[in-house]
Write a structure and sequence with these properties.
Largest sheet: none
CATH topology: Growth Hormone, Chain: A
CATH architecture: Up-down Bundle
Keywords: Cell membrane, Membrane, Transmembrane, Transmembrane helix
Number of strands: 0
GO molecular function, one term: transmembrane transporter activity
InterPro entries: MFS, MFS_dom, MFS_Efflux_Transporters, MFS_trans_sf
Organism: Vreelandella nigrificans
Subcellular location: Cell membrane
Distance between the termini: 20 Å
Oligomer: single chain
Radius of gyration: 20 Å
Strand content: under 5%
Order of helices and strands: HHHHHHHHHHHHH
Length: 395
């Protein structure tokens, strides 16, 4: 099913880049809101009388609803103007942040995370397709890198600032800090995003047709294991740093900062090189992430080594997202919204499974088992990518 770009309004190039940057800020807020519980896991669990494994499921629940939203977005949204869909999703993120900041118990926390999951799944499902309409095809990888710079910013500053501020103003206060930023982002989107009408309505049949493509189905399987491997480790990084590395609040903040700042390197590298070397990136990333996790198991008690390993992991984490979206834009360019819905569902499902898998291992076997499980999943992702020939539409 072809995306009829010629039948929709094409925004001016000068306005388009402003819209891309507004989407980058939205990504930063989404990532910050989704993964702040990683740096605040212990105080959240203590405050709501939950185990750390249970608190980690706050990430899983957002992933579950993100899966549903990503699969339904291109069908339920129908022919709604994509600008107003994105604005509505940002408004929903604002509501979620307010609810989590005032949550009285674990049940309401999970409700707020469910709302956030809808926003995450909806935004990512449409994000790549919208980018492809905002800039010329030769600028897609660059625009994706700009959008994912928001992920690098959030990864760099959300966790360390969240960890630091959490000790000063409490974990609820940390979420309140995000509220005015999201309001500014909402206003920016209203101004910068051009009208993005669509003349096509996706159906579940379209999704199934795309999924039946052998190269795409294999890619989706690799996506699931790659992201599950990453987040079965990342969701429980704070307990590891507390128990194995033995870091205090200041050390934790510094380590999270090292991880996050390296994301800018990964964003730059993927934005510059992934377009011509996408398969190489898809091969290297899970291998390096698995080796880093193995290195943490062996040398995680040494703070300097841990900081270096986390920096490498952070660069790979950002590069992973951009690389898979670049793969999508090159190999499913005839149905980007359908493919976007499916790959986002796969990613969010992987986050759900990874965080859930890691939480069970943490509660019943300990943090070493959690990290070992992460390495195993990353190895499967690498095997599925293989030489990469079976991930290409021409193969």
């Amino acid at each position: 099913m072809q995306l009829n770009v010629s039948a929709v309004d094409t925004p001016k190039k000068s306005a388009s880049w402003g819209a891309v940057f507004s989407m980058s800020l939205c990504v930063a807020m989404l990532i910050a809101a989704e993964f702040l519980p990683v740096s605040l896991l212990t105080p959240i669990a203590d405050s709501l009388n939950a185990t750390e494994g249970q608190a980690g499921q706050a990430i899983s629940i957002s992933g579950f609803f993100a899966v549903l939203a990503s699969l339904l977005m291109s069908t339920v949204a129908g022919r709604f103007n994509r600008k107003w869909v994105l604005v509505s999703l940002t408004s929903l993120m604002l509501l979620s942040l307010v609810i989590i900041a005032v949550t009285p118990n674990f049940a309401i926390l999970m409700l707020s995370r469910a709302l956030l999951g809808i926003c995450i799944g909806g935004f990512w499902a449409l994000g790549t397709a919208v980018i492809m309409r905002l800039v010329p095809i030769e600028s897609v990888s660059k625009a994706l890198a700009v959008m994912y710079t928001g992920q690098a910013v959030a990864a760099a500053f959300a966790a360390p600032i969240g960890s630091y501020l959490g000790a000063i103003i409490g974990w609820r206060g940390v979420f309140w800090v995000l509220v005015p930023i999201v309001i500014v982002n909402l206003i920016w989107q209203l101004i910068a995003l051009p009208s993005l009408p669509t003349n096509e309505r996706q159906s579940f049949h379209t999704l199934l047709t795309v999924l039946k493509r052998p190269y795409f189905a294999r890619g989706i399987a690799a996506v699931v294991f790659a992201f599950a491997g990453a987040f079965s480790m990342f969701a429980y990084l704070r307990p590891f740093l507390e128990t194995i590395t033995g870091g205090n609040v200041v050390t934790l903040s510094q380590l999270f900062l090292a991880l996050g700042l390296a994301g800018f390197i990964g964003s730059w590298a993927a934005g510059k090189f992934a377009n011509e070397n996408v398969i190489r990136f898809l091969q290297v990333v899970p291998v390096v992430m698995g080796l880093v996790t193995l290195g943490l198991l062996g040398f995680g008690h040494i703070v300097v080594v841990t900081a270096l390993l986390l920096a490498i992991w952070g660069a790979m984490n950002t590069a992973m997202s951009i690389s898979w979206m670049a793969w999508l834009s090159q190999n499913v360019d005839d149905a980007p919204e359908a493919a976007g819905s499916l790959i986002v569902a796969a990613i969010q499902g992987a986050i759900l499974l990874g965080a859930g898998f890691g939480g069970v291992l943490l509660d019943y076997a300990g943090i070493i088992a959690t990290f070992s499980g992460s390495i195993f999943l990353s190895a499967i992702a690498f095997m599925l990518v293989g030489s990469g020939k079976r991930l290409l539409k021409a193969a």
